Amino acid sequence: MCKRVFPNRRLTSLPLFSKMSVYGPVVKIHPVVLASICDSYERRNEGASRVIGTLLGTIDKHSIEVTNCFSVPHNESEDEVAVDMEFAKNMYELHKRVSPTEVIIGWYATGFEITEHSVLIHEYYSREATNPIHLTMDTALQSGKMSIRAYVRTRVLPSRTKGLTSDLSQVGGSAGRVQDMLTTMLAYIDDVMSGKVAADNSVGRFLMDLVNKVPTISAEDFENMLNSNINDLLMVTYLSNLTQAQIALNEKLVLL
């Protein structure tokens, strides 16, 4: 038996699932598919918590029709999941001889939760079908009814807009703190010059060293340099927002 073993790993870097009834086309499931899933669950191996299998059917522009399915042997543990991919491949070849119009459209699993193993198995079916669906069926009636849900995987892109716009706030905050420190330093120097505060030689040497490290630049040149950097930051922010808008529009057009 040829099996593919998926080691367990964290979900932080993996794409998330979204319910298809909200973000995708309508999923139509034939009753024979539900009966077959229930039968596979009742015939599962001793100690198995759930069963998985391949979904077959047809896809059109506005809907996905699940017309057939078959279970796929697998073993799960806390650390890894092993799926008999050779069995799944052979079963699909046999089904194509009987119903050549049916293609792989996703996979199913009994239960109502999407686990780390579910995401790993979905990676395999993503190579067998374009944007496959994942069907969950609560055959154990843990929610009090036989809940059936269909999901499709969508990639969640990290938002950079907040980070870019916050850079402007950081620049403003840093400039404000520098201004406060300069005000404090000038007030100390005025107090020393007027005799209100005794002079401290160590502080004087520190201030002299600080002044010598400041580059010689006119106020006009410094203002031009700062404005140029701010303009670059604003341009990057604009391009980031434009890119995100184009990606969102493309995802909507793909689902039409």
UniProtKB/TrEMBL annotation:
<dbReference type="GO" id="GO:0001732">
    <property type="term" value="P:formation of cytoplasmic translation initiation complex"/>
</dbReference>
<dbReference type="Pfam" id="PF13012">
    <property type="entry name" value="MitMem_reg"/>
</dbReference>
<comment type="function">
    <text>Component of the eukaryotic translation initiation factor 3 (eIF-3) complex, which is involved in protein synthesis of a specialized repertoire of mRNAs and, together with other initiation factors, stimulates binding of mRNA and methionyl-tRNAi to the 40S ribosome. The eIF-3 complex specifically targets and initiates translation of a subset of mRNAs involved in cell proliferation.</text>
</comment>
<feature type="domain" description="MPN">
    <location>
        <begin position="27"/>
        <end position="157"/>
    </location>
</feature>
<dbReference type="InterPro" id="IPR027531">
    <property type="entry name" value="eIF3f"/>
</dbReference>
<comment type="subunit">
    <text>Component of the eukaryotic translation initiation factor 3 (eIF-3) complex, which is composed of 13 subunits: EIF3A, EIF3B, EIF3C, EIF3D, EIF3E, EIF3F, EIF3G, EIF3H, EIF3I, EIF3J, EIF3K, EIF3L and EIF3M.</text>
</comment>
<keyword id="KW-0396">Initiation factor</keyword>
<keyword id="KW-0963">Cytoplasm</keyword>
<dbReference type="InterPro" id="IPR024969">
    <property type="entry name" value="EIF3F/CSN6-like_C"/>
</dbReference>
<dbReference type="GO" id="GO:0003743">
    <property type="term" value="F:translation initiation factor activity"/>
</dbReference>
<dbReference type="GO" id="GO:0031369">
    <property type="term" value="F:translation initiation factor binding"/>
</dbReference>
<dbReference type="GO" id="GO:0008237">
    <property type="term" value="F:metallopeptidase activity"/>
</dbReference>
<dbReference type="GO" id="GO:0016282">
    <property type="term" value="C:eukaryotic 43S preinitiation complex"/>
</dbReference>
<dbReference type="InterPro" id="IPR000555">
    <property type="entry name" value="JAMM/MPN+_dom"/>
</dbReference>
<dbReference type="GO" id="GO:0033290">
    <property type="term" value="C:eukaryotic 48S preinitiation complex"/>
</dbReference>
<comment type="similarity">
    <text>Belongs to the eIF-3 subunit F family.</text>
</comment>
<dbReference type="InterPro" id="IPR037518">
    <property type="entry name" value="MPN"/>
</dbReference>
<keyword id="KW-0648">Protein biosynthesis</keyword>
<dbReference type="Pfam" id="PF01398">
    <property type="entry name" value="JAB"/>
</dbReference>
<dbReference type="GO" id="GO:0071541">
    <property type="term" value="C:eukaryotic translation initiation factor 3 complex, eIF3m"/>
</dbReference>
<protein>
    <recommendedName>
        <fullName>Eukaryotic translation initiation factor 3 subunit F</fullName>
    </recommendedName>
</protein>
